[in-house]
Amino acid sequence: MDTDSAAVNEDEKQHFHVLAVDDSYIDRKVLEKLLTVSSYQVTCVDSGDKALEYLGLVDIEENEYDSSSSQQISSSSKSSQQEVSKVNLIMTDYSMPGISGYDLLKRIKVGSPNRASFVCDSTWKDVPVVVMSSENVPSRINMCLEGGAEEFLLKPVKLSDLRKLHSHLLNTITDPCVENAICDVIESANNTNKEESEIDKNCSNTNKRKATASDLSDRRPRGLPVS
Fold it and tell me: pTM of the prediction?
């Protein structure tokens, strides 16, 4: 690989930044591992509140902090708002204490219910949100999808599930060079999957032939006993 290609691939990895939100330590680590293997940059938080703080969506006026605490939150929110442009995808668990995954989705897509108006900052409104749950509840799934979620994934999340998210991530990339590089990577991954499927198919056919040959051998008439 030449230097230019390496630089583009590195740029691509930096652009694919996922914010993962889950109160379960095990599920969070599994998701982090899958995303890292898929060459995504990952930031993990364990609650909806921390996700809102990271994104700079904390409403200071709705919390009863003293002036020093408010100043710290305000400073944190400003720095977080600078980070939000680097987030290409948000993956959140549905069932969490406090702010649920659905609440987080609504805050991102609509705004805070405690504000006078539901005006949403377009900077993070367009960031794709994927909701995850271990419970297959159709009404819950429909509610999230109608609320603006791009996908609803059932746990445990698998590597194949992450491949479905490429198209959503592409919509967040504005640099044509990076987008082309990502398309090349996706195409290469798809070709690899086809090759692996073909190898599995060939191995399966070989095993079938062996099994058939063995079966035929067992069915051949035995030699007559010597009198």
Answer: 0.63
Residue 226 in tokens: 């010597």
Query: What's the token pair of residue 113?
Result: 């219910």
- Picking from 226, 76, 86, 94, the residue whose alpha carbon sits closest to that of residue 155 is 94
Query: Is 207 in a helix, a strand, or coil?
Result: helix
Q: What local confidence, expressed as pLDDT, does residue 74 receive? A: 45
Helices (DSSP H) in 23-158: which residue ranges?
A: 25-37, 48-55, 67-84, 101-109, 122-125, 138-146
Question: 179 is written with which tokens?
Answer: 């987008």
Query: For residue 45, what are the β-bridge partners?
Result: 21
Element (H or E) spanning 4, and its range? Answer: helix 3-15
152-187 pLDDT per residue, tens: 999 999 999 988 887 777 766 655 555 555 555 555
